[in-house]
Amino acid sequence: MAELDTDLDHIIPSSVLPPFWAKLVVGLVSLLCFARSYDGDFVFDDSEAIVNNKDLQADTPLGDLWHHDFWGSRLSSNTSHKSYRPLTVLTFRMNYYLSGGFHPVGFHVVNILLHGGISVLMVDVFSVLFGGLQYTSKGRRVHLAPRASLLAALLFAVHPVHTECVAGVVGRADLLCTLFFLLSFLGYCKAFRESNKERAHSSTLWVLLSIVLGAVAMLCKEQGITVLGLNAVFDILVIGKFNIVEVIQKIVRRDKSLENIGLLRSGGLLFRMTLLTSGGAGVLYVRWRIMGTGPPAFTEVDNPASFADSMLVRAINYNYYYSLNAWLLLCPWWLCFDWSMGCIPLIKSVGDWRVIALAALWLCLIGLICQALCSEDSSKRRILTLGLGFLVIPFLPASNLFFRVGFVVAERVLYLPSAGYCMLLTFGFGALSRHTKKKLIAAFVLGILFINILRCMIRSGEWRSEDQLFRSALSVCPLNAKVHYNIGKNLADKGNQTAAIRYYREAVRLNPKYVHAMNNLGNILKERNELQEAEELLSLAVQIQPDFAAAWMNLGIVQNSLKRFEAAEQSYRTAIKYRRKYPDCYYNLGRLYADLNRHVDALNAWRNATMLKPEHSLAWNNMIILLDNTGNLAQAEAVGREALELIPNDHSLMFSLANVLGKSQKYKESEALFLKAIKANPNVASYHGNLAVLYHRWGHLNLAKKHYEISLQLDPAAAGTKENYGLLRRKLEQMQRKDV
């Protein structure tokens, strides 16, 4: 678009930045914006999608990736979110393999580099969008809008709303989706060329490649399939130069020249549309079959507007969400990792002042649509239409129009639509420069770029740790119960229970049905021996959500502490009913049976725990100790040896088995295990004390004396060790008197 480039001369001089250098500048600026996040932790959703996702580990077959969702759950499960992104998970797995484990630096670096590559690719994409497809006689495409494409790519590279996708590792799904989306679009553009002023014709191979790349984009994230719709719009409105207003006017006037519109008779276009439609339908059908032909199950807290009874209330709130997304693109200052749980209260009537935002959004959109349809300038029509297409079409899967989504507002879904916003903004700057001092426009644009770069750096820093991320949300969404819950959980993990209780209570106050906050708060109160309130909270949690297995188990632990054994057993059994593979619950059930002297039941419960989780050290230990205490030394020894085969480096198991072997007078084996346990953990008083008892029995009195003394140094108040040490000293004194 030569006219727009002239208008942007004072912003980007025509004498600088040829295509290669333009891309280099865009790439470096994009890396600068988010480089601060390279050494950040795994935060928020990264824990579930990466750290706790077994699909990343080498012992999980690669084939399982194609049957699991993004979080590692089976797609056929009722609890699955149906987010099918196997190619994204595959890149996580490659990161895990190359870095030798869950080291976040490698994961973050890949995300930053992906954003840089996408930003560079945007220069070519915007060149097509602004300049159209024009070729020389040699078939080489001419860049008609280098300044406009450079400015739009810079605006995209530095947009702060991208921080979640770049600094949050799970945002890689959006990055990979965008990469293949753009490649699909550019591939579709390759299907056209002009030769001898004849009408552009397509290359079927490029169209098919574009469809394949669209399918790849969808395997990275669901919205990738929308590229086929954008390609269709591009083909009809840009390649076919289809003027909707002109056609409507001719239809109204019953103009016979309508029959001569080439687009309506173009076999090439119909063939390409058939390919796009059938390809898209085929990909969606396969995707639907893979996910189990059922939509994901979301709750009211995920997306409250979608559960409203009134269609009017749903429509108003959906449109209000659109206006909030538009505001995040326009003014990305108030950013939050989560916008659910009361962050955005529902609009329940048209009298709510927030309806103004809806009106403003649609006034702007209608104005842009009218300009895109009715302008006499074909270049302006093309730019506005494609800008709106890039803005709206990739956003459609998140719009609630076709199916319910599991969020209210999510910054990550704006990564791709922001390209359309940057294009429209660049066009606006060009149009404004015709009526305003160009130096003033240049200063304004440079100011926006500088502010956005600064904001990206600040926001990237906030994504480096969960503490900073969660606290940054307090000023944006103080009514969001999940924000308070996450801060509380973070504090509890650090051992600050008092502060954690305060945030958990606020989360429950803001959302009285927040069962996870009740569960965590009940757990802390249980540890602080505030058992009555803990029981009340956990009982309320299971009333609200009867299938909440963790809350049932924790309720059982509290009831056990209150000596309400029958109620505790019932709670444990209910937890296992709703989560059949629940080793921790079997372990706690075994402890209950042990307290009731139901030894066989206790052993069976602990055996179930170890069958479900072979590395469950506590369950193994309790079995060994119970068998030891009841005199079943041979069985205790067998269980201990079995446990150590599965968990060979567990010093507590070594200690328990060493005690059993000592009682069985297998002193040499017992000594070896005691010494190995002490080497692994040398500061445990009981390890030295029991080894001293072994030496005492074995007759190695000097060694016994040495380890008694070490044990008493570590725990001077140990009465049993004091008594045994006293007996040993008296025996040594008697031996010395006999020698004299």
Question: Which properties best describe this structure?
Answer:
740 residues, mainly alpha, 34 helices, 66% helix
List the topology elements:
Blueprint: H1 2-7, H2 19-34, H3 46-51, H4 86-99, H5 104-131, H6 146-157, H7 163-167, H8 172-189, H9 204-220, H10 227-239, H11 244-253, H12 262-265, H13 267-290, H14 311-330, H15 355-374, H16 378-392, H17 418-432, H18 438-462, H19 466-472, H20 481-493, H21 497-510, H22 515-527, H23 531-544, H24 549-561, H25 565-578, H26 583-595, H27 599-612, H28 617-629, H29 633-646, H30 651-663, H31 667-680, H32 685-698, H33 701-714, H34 719-739
Helix pairs in contact: 2-5, 2-6, 2-18, 5-6, 5-8, 6-17, 8-9, 8-10, 9-13, 10-13, 10-16, 14-15, 15-16, 16-17, 19-20, 20-21, 21-22, 22-23, 22-24, 23-24, 24-25, 24-26, 25-26, 26-27, 26-28, 27-28, 28-29, 28-30, 29-30, 30-31, 31-32, 32-33, 33-34
Termini separation: 112 Å
Kindly estimate the percentage of residues that lie in beta strands according to DSSP: under 5%
Helix content: 55-70%
Computed CA radius of gyration, to the nearest angstrom: 34 Å
Query: What is the total tally of β strands?
Result: 0
Question: What coarse outline follows from CA principal-axis ratios?
Answer: elongated
Number of helices: 34
Average pLDDT, all residues: 87
Low-pLDDT runs: 135-139, 194-200
Characterize the largest beta sheet: strand count, sense, and whether it forms a barrel: none
Structural features, described:
It contains 34 helices and no strands. It is mainly α. It has a domain at 2-457. The protein is elongated, with a radius of gyration of 34 Å.
